[in-house]
């Protein structure tokens, strides 16, 4: 049922002769329009806040060793602005030796089932185009962004950037342009945590609610990748709200 529809009958019962008393003068009409425009603008801002990002939750204690709370992903928040996309990974605990990997499939077809760190990970059929590998035992230049092209992982063009750590949450921000993403682009992705050994698997995968590996020496298996759709940046919504305000003030 449409919101507010339940109020209609009582309004219809209002005697016609009384309607005159409800007519507003031009000043009141202007004030109401301004109030409505402001509320619409606020509503737009509120809608943006909730629609601009998306929370992906993972089961807790889904590791082969649940004492490794720093590897236990609890949630991942993804959001984008007009120019950038941010992935924020929260784990149950935090340790500076934790390694993080983000697997990104931005185009259908092409890509690879491997990862740029050559970790023993089965991506379950996903063909990824970009990879982020990161660590938190140094405060800057601690993240690598690598693209996959027809020759494989293009380390020659890889970039190094810095993550942002706050408590048990670590965030990475990349430009949309770096992955040829636009409003409406759909990204399939997964996030995994690991240790520093070159043959360490993904100990926890966001995509899987069950144990991803039975031990350090066993390849991990991802679940079905998650998806995120790039939304218009906050600037677009603010401009829409402003346009609405201007158009109403001109009446
Ligand atoms: Ca988990
Ligand atoms: Ca998991």
Characterize the structure shown.
It contains 4 helices and 15 strands. It folds into 2 domains: 56 residues; 175 residues, Immunoglobulin-like (Sandwich). The strands form 3 sheets. Strands 4, 6, 7, 8, 9, 12, 13 and 15 form an 8-stranded antiparallel β-sheet that branches. It has a 5-stranded antiparallel β-sheet with strand order 1-2-3-11-10. With 251 residues, the chain is of the alpha+beta class. The radius of gyration is 25 Å and the shape is globular. The protein binds calcium ion (2 copies). One calcium ion binds next to loops.
Please write out the topology.
Blueprint lengths: L7 H5 L3 H4 L6 H26 L1 E5 L15 E8 L3 E8 L7 E7 L15 E2 L7 E6 L7 E7 L2 E2 L5 E3 L2 E3 L2 E7 L10 E9 L9 E2 L14 E2 L4 E4 L4 H16 L2
Parallel strand pairs: 5-14
Antiparallel strand pairs: 1-2, 2-3, 3-11, 4-6, 4-12, 6-7, 7-8, 7-9, 10-11, 12-13, 12-15
This protein binds calcium ion (CA) (2 copies).
One calcium ion binds next to β13.
CATH topology term of the largest domain: Immunoglobulin-like
| Total domain units | 2
Query: What compounds sit in this structure?
Result: calcium ion
Structural class: alpha+beta
- Count of alpha and pi helical runs: 4
Mean pLDDT: 82
| Helix fraction by DSSP (H/I, runs of at least 4) | 10-25%
The global form is globular
User: Tell me, what is the CATH class of the largest domain?
Assistant: Mainly Beta
Strand content: 25-35%
Give the second-level CATH assignment, the architecture of the largest domain. Sandwich
Largest sheet: 8 strands, antiparallel
């Amino acid at each position: 049922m449409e919101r507010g529809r339940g109020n209609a009958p009582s309004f219809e019962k209002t005697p016609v002769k009384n309607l005159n008393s409800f007519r507003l003068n031009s000043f009141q009409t202007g004030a109401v329009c301004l109030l409505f425009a402001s509320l619409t603008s606020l509503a737009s801002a509120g809608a943006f806040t909730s629609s601009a990002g998306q929370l992906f939750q993972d089961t807790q204690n889904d590791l082969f060793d649940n004492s490794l709370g720093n590897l236990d992903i609890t949630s991942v928040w993804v959001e984008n602005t007009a120019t950038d996309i941010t992935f924020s990974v929260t784990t149950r605990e935090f340790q500076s030796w934790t390694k993080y990997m983000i697997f990104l499939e931005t185009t259908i077809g092409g890509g690879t089932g491997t990862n740029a760190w050559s970790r023993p990970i089965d991506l379950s059929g996903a063909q990824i185009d970009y990879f982020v590998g990161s660590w938190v035992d140094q405060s800057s230049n601690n993240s690598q962004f690598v693209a996959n092209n027809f020759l494989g992982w293009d380390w020659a063009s890889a970039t190094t950037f810095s993550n942002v750590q706050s408590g048990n949450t670590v965030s990475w921000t990349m430009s949309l342009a770096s992955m040829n993403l636009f409003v409406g682009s759909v990204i399939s992705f997964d996030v995994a945590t690991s240790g520093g050994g070159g043959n360490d698997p993904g100990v926890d995968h966001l995509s899987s609610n069950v144990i991803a590996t039975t031990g350090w020496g066993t390849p991990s298996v991802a679940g079905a990748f998650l998806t995120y759709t790039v939304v218009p940046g906050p600037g677009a919504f603010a401009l829409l709200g402003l346009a609405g305000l201007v158009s109403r003030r001109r009446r």
